[in-house]
Amino acid sequence: MIGERLLRARKAAGLSLRALADAVDLSQTAINKYEKGELTPSSGQLLKIAKVLGVRTEYFLRSTSLQLEGIEYRKRASTSKTILDRISVDITDQAERWIELLSLYPQPPVSKFALPERLPERISSEEEIELAAEILRQEWGLGTNPIPDLIDTLESHGIMVIVTAVDGLEKFDGLAASVAGIPIVVVAKNWPGDRQRFTLAHELGHLVLHDRLAENLDEEKACNRFAGALLLPQGEVVKVMGTHRTALEVRELYMLKHEFGISMLGVLFRIKQAGVITESICRSWFMEFSKQGWRKGEPGDQYAHEDTYLFQGLVYRALAEGYIGESKAAELLKISLTRFKSERKLEGLHAATDQ
Description:
The protein is of the alpha+beta class. The protein contains 17 helices and 4 strands.
């Protein structure tokens, strides 16, 4: 167990055998034998290794060992294997801590994921993809309003959301997988909120549409259509933009972006998909986005990042209910016990004062 975890932690840190050996004043052969399970490091050596790799020593002794299943990346083809390995290690570590935390509760503290029963068994058109998104919104009680916190929405319906922040994520958006029967959606921390949200909605689309699509529909394109429909329902597009337009103002795209949390380009495509503008007008605006450089970075304020708070909240709940102690809570949160005690007492936070 120690060897496997050492190998994973070293890959996550982006260190070669030689680099780690030099950093902890051991031979490369010794590190190699530790990873293969042929030798066991002493407690002092393990402490040095943990410090260099940025993990707690408890990480190497954790009994939970999981495998990610059905991994599907949303990435560019040029993403290196080294980066993917580091992402995989980070995700596996977070998922293990999730499963360990859930096992501490006598009753499951989160809902089990289940698809709406009203979803059509077979989806053969873009209109039926829109309908699937509409049904999901109805079943989850979202109505047609903007979804203020998509991560919270997914987590409250039994999907494990993991936000990864390893270095080198410039060419990685996210992935979908499962662990211990729980669906996982992973999103990169560094992207603007609207891009994060589209990735989350796209991966949810895989869960909803998989094995339902007719042969004439490409699943990736279908999931993009689902994501757009989930974030910005067609009825809302028509309500705001009207049924037919011959021209648009860029400010309209910007305002809808910040209201619904979908990129300006995504808004443009939704307006076209709702039949409000023609293909020609959409293509003209797409060319304008390219000319202005907005496809790489849209103008104005970015949509705020999303993050997950459920895991941290469940750690503190487990502590309050006596399922774990401070040391275990700090281990699950991957912070020092000293820092945990300080944060638990809200030290360093200033009380709000009336102006």
